Amino acid sequence: MTTPAGTGPLTGMKVIELAHIMAGPVCGLMLADMGADVIKVEKPDGDDSRRFVPPDIAGESAAYMMMNRNKRGIALNLKMPDAVTALRRLLAEADVVIENYRMGTMEKLGLGYEDLRKVNPRLIYCEISGFGRTGPYAQRGGFDLIAQGMSGLMSITGEGPGRPPVKPGAPISDITAGIIGAMGVSAAYARVLQTGEGQKVDASLFEAAITQTYWQSAIAFATGTAPGPLGSAHPLNAPYQSFRTSDGWINVGAANQRNWERFLEVIGAPELGDDPRFANNHGRMENLTALEAILNEKLATETTATWLERMEQAGLPAGPVLNILEMQRDPQALARDMIVELDHPVAGPVKTLGHPVKFSETPASIRQAAPVLGQHSREVLREAGYGGDAIDAMISTGAVIAARMS
């Protein structure tokens, strides 16, 4: 079954994804959503995320299906020369390759950037690694947890000073590295269209996590002091954080002076506007602990829904703290097509997340569920010029794995 054609701005781009688990697959996912034909190349036992179970749906890994929708799948045993030859043929005609192998792996296969650019000078070679391909850590493997810790992120996440380091709940460095990689590929593709010349795109989990520290790095540059964790509070403005209500939590963005004054009107606490500790943002930040205690007591007198209604009427930025299931049912998420249902050949109807960028003329689309292992092996090899007998021979030797699709 051929993947339905994309409609996005990258329609016509062919991508070979030699990446596993998350950062590289996020990059491929973003490009596929925007119309690229992304061919995911897996090892004989598949991407490691296929074994991230539970949870599963009909035996198919939910994690794998989330990261690999919109892609075609081929499985190759790159320990066998025929498989390497097949991959080289695919790469010779590709616009982009995404890889997140350890440094030197592609070169050992004769598929490094310098090798490939000789036969395909237009190729964009996107490497996503733990620490980048230069510098003293270039040889190190990369993991989200390690990158978060070394970037400073875990030093600014958590409930407050003196508490154990906390990793943000989402794998931020993995996801951000994938998005940055897709941004880099898109920029490099613009250059290819202008000049016909490809280039290497080098993104890393470490640098992706560092980009999440803009505010805290600004503070450190200016003061020479490393900021610490503030819970849900903002490092530069107050009040801008979560507060407890009688039945849950609410986020309030009353950081600038006008919103602070609106906030006091809504909660019926005009006396706080006369308190010299809270007269301006500088004072509120200096006395944040005291301010939090007062506001938590005030907001705990009503429900989240009641406060949200009052704050919306006042034009005050506010929102509920939703869990993941609540987010997936939220009318705005649904209206923006952020929850999409697809038909998987094994798991049946499965839900996935939509694409976060909306294009007026070339919309991104979620077209097909993630492939089962080797689902498109025959199809992709035929497109690369292999005949049926040659494909059967490679399958029989184990160089290629092909799914039996009913």
Topology of this structure?
Layout: E1 14-18, H1 23-33, E2 37-42, E3 56-57, E4 60-61, H2 62-67, E5 71-76, H3 81-92, E6 96-99, H4 105-108, H5 113-119, E7 124-129, H6 144-151, H7 172-195, E8 200-204, H8 205-210, H9 214-223, E9 240-244, E10 249-253, H10 257-267, H11 271-274, H12 281-286, H13 288-299, H14 304-313, E11 318-320, H15 324-329, H16 331-335, E12 339-344, E13 348-353, H17 377-383, H18 388-397, E14 400-401
Parallel strand pairs: 1-2, 1-6, 2-5, 6-7, 7-8
Antiparallel strand pairs: 3-4, 5-14, 9-10, 10-11, 12-13
Number of domains: 2
Structural class: alpha/beta
Strand content: 15-25%
At CATH level 2, the architecture of the largest domain is 3-Layer(aba) Sandwich
CATH superfamily of the largest domain: Crotonobetainyl-coa:carnitine coa-transferase, domain 1
**Average pLDDT reading:** 95
CATH topological fold name of the largest domain? Rossmann fold
Helix content: 25-40%
- Give the N-terminus to C-terminus distance in angstroms: 10 Å
Task: Provide the gyration radius in Å.
Answer: 25 Å
The tally of helices reads 18
**How would you characterize the largest beta sheet?**
7 strands, mixed
Low-confidence stretches: none
Number of strands: 14
Spatial strand arrangement across the major sheet: 8-7-6-1-2-5-14
Which CATH top level class of the largest domain fits?
Answer: Alpha Beta
Q: Which descriptor suits the 3D outline?
A: elongated
